[in-house]
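User: Could you write out the 3D structure of this protein bound to pyridoxal-5'-phosphate? I've included everything you need below.
Assistant: Certainly. Input first, then the structure.
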Amino acid sequence: MPEKKYMMTPGPTPVPPEVLLAMAEPIIHHRGADFRHAFVECSERLKEVFKTKNDVIMFAASGTGGMDSAVSNINAPGDRVIVHSAGNFGERWAKIANTYGLEVAHIKEEWGATPDPAKLAAELEKNPAKAVYLTHSETSTGVVADLQQLAAVAKEHGALVVVDCISSLAAIPVETDAWGLDVVVAGSQKALMLPPGLAAVSISDAARAASEEPGRCPSFFLNWPAALKALGNETTAFTPAVTLILGMNVALGMILEEGLETRFDMHTRLGRACRAGIKAMGLELFSPDEDRSAVVTAVKAPEGVDGQKIVGTMRDKYAVQIVGGQGILKGHIFRIGHIGYYDIFDITTALSAVELALVDLGADINRGAAVTSALAAFEE
Ligand SMILES: *Cc1c(COP(=O)(O)O)cnc(C)c1O
């Protein structure tokens, strides 16, 4: 019999059976009335989850495709923009902006830092920027930024606010309109409980106007005006990812039926449980020990143990998939994701496997305490 596998990463995440079933149905044509109905419903549900009146468009792409579309549609080569980063995904904004020949002022904070709004304000006062590129949940470190405050600073200085909410949307509060976020990018394989392959992007009137100015960085496929025009006609510019959109419509229906607030509360408690279990083992957290960090828990590998070996042992011996550190953090940390289709038993399973793997690797940890502590923290 094949081994039962557990997916405990901050993307991809497990997909609920209801969503898998919707995606197993025979393909329908994307210009027919049945798909049109599901597409319109899905687009409306996306607005509810994004907390916005703005249009939300979808691309058949990973989350990075949505980020790429933001840079190329808003900006023209030579535009001055600010990227405020504190980890791998934040730095990706700078890489994309450099690819398009923008003039990038990069506020590059240490990986693991919480982005400081005062640094953003200082940069904007020195040199105004057309747009500010932010990361809400920095999945590489587990840090969740104070997005409301950062966005307020950028707005005050007249910049467009563009945010990577790929791992935060539907996991923790994202208030697109109330916080003045011009562009919010999400990805299907995180808290939206779908397989990888869909990017969703919300576009404010100001961002839309910027995308209609002449001289934008050229992109034929990731083209906002074309996508928005098609959306106005209840369709898509090109063949959409039909299966994923049908699945997303079901997943968003489930999320909205349960209620966003209930989902946020669940993620807060899962985060608490995971951190409590890790600390009970005697391990040290890398991500902040705060409720806001409810997306992914990053843990320092114990002295003398390679973080990659923890991940490898958990996967190969116990069929539990977590992830290690990226870039400079590789080998030094491991990360447990807890967004989307997760419950407390996923956390206790992950903690049990961490415990077993660390014993296998000869680490000196407290045994038998993690699961009890996690359950208690979840109930608090
Ligand atoms: C997963 C993730 C991405 C990358 O998305 P892809 O779907 O791999 O392109 C970008 N930013 C954050 C914060 C993420 O968590």
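DSSP finds 13 helices and 14 strands in the chain.
User: Perfect, thank you.
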